[in-house]
Write the structure tokens for this entry.
Amino acid sequence: MHFRSLLAGATALALLATPALSAEYLGGTVMSTDIGGQMVLTDANGMTLYIFDKDEPGVSNCYDSCAANWPPLFADDAAMAEGDFSIVERTDGTKMWAYKSMPLYYWVNDMNPGDTTGDGVGGVWHLAVE
């Protein structure tokens, strides 16, 4: 009986630790996930997306070493804007997704779904919140 109680408790904790998905966008490319009480944009695998204060609406200013640390959420050539999501053409000819005109990025140091270690980096990187 004691083992079953432990197993039930562990299962309940695992469910609480798992981010709850509330919405799916762009055919599942982007999700809105409850992380710590905030609705944060993630990719379909639960990896957190960020915005950069030095970007301008519709313009990415993150290249070279910046883009190595903050990889863009790339869009394929057939991608089309949808709702609050638009496409930004980068100076290197690639395309990336933007939310409310702000380009979306990953943080290289986030290792697991739901990680938010990039929030506040350098005072210019922030969670992409819905």
